[in-house]
Amino acid sequence: MSKKVIIDTDPGVDDAMAILLALKSPEIELVGLTTIYGNVYTDLATQNALRLVELTGRPDIPVAHGAESPLLAPLGPAADFVHGWDGLGNINLPPPQGRAVDRPAAQFIVETVMAYPGEITLVPIGPLTNLALALALEPRIADHVAEVVVMGGAATVNGNVTPAAEANIINDPHAADMVFTAAWPVTMVGLDVTMQIIMTDDYMLALKTSGSPMAEFIYTISRFYRDFHYDTHGLAGMHTHDPSAIAYVLDPTLFTTVRGPLRVVTEGIAAGQTLLDRRQNWRQPNAWTGQPMVNVCLGADAERLLALYRERITA
Ligand code: BDR
Ligand code: CA
Prior knowledge:
Number of domains: 1
Strand content: 15-25%
Order of helices and strands: EHEHEHHEHHEHHEHEHHHEHEEEEH
Distance between the termini: 21 Å
Bound molecules: beta-D-ribofuranose, calcium ion
Shape: globular
Helix content: 25-40%
Strand order of the largest sheet: 3-2-1-4-5-6-12-9
Number of helices: 14
CATH architecture: Alpha-Beta Complex
């Protein structure tokens, strides 16, 4: 049986790559996209989500417009230097035909989870504001989701915005702390693994020449994003962030994980840091004591994951 999935997203080049992987995978029934600021502001995230479902012939998939700013932190600038001014590599797509559904993302998440108790997997691949708002609106969703798979954070490596913080978490650290401390099953697919999985220039060229229009589209939108990686990391390729969260949903055996309580630093120079307590039976009580265990990916079979991505996208 396929898994019902809601992707919460700020598309975003790698968000688009993740959404297309979900759409091409029979194990996943994509029941909605909810949108959030981050790579772009929320209005453009909604437009891009609509563009993606229309371009892939799935305008039936509902898109719900999400929060336009973080819970408490100030709204940061859009990451146009990473994803382009349009969020999709400056390719000038025409406006979408359709519109977002008539209720906000948090309400859409609550209604969908409560309508299918135990069946919905939430996959946030942007800042976590919508999930925190959904929890505040209806705390019982924590008991009724199948699983939450977060792309974000860094447990054992530096961040990609500051030495402490990864982009999705620093954009709304208060929301992220709510999500990681709620009593629902959470897996963190963070920079520990996503920066180990590289889509090299050769890999991308093979996608482009595969004969699949979807693979060629991915090649086209990812040129600007690839150049950002080259300029910033000296990498002739791209890190595989958001598609890795979908890959986890498809096949968790692609990853090795550890479990422990995880808190997010919300203020100061380390704001956005995801701090996992890996100590066993620590005596003195602290802010991690008694918090739910988070499943944190620390290792990945990059070769197998990239083969899976290529197989699905080019099929
Ligand atoms: C995350 O930040 C965004 O730029 C990407 O879409 C991804 O979700 C990686 O840190
Ligand atoms: Ca994203």
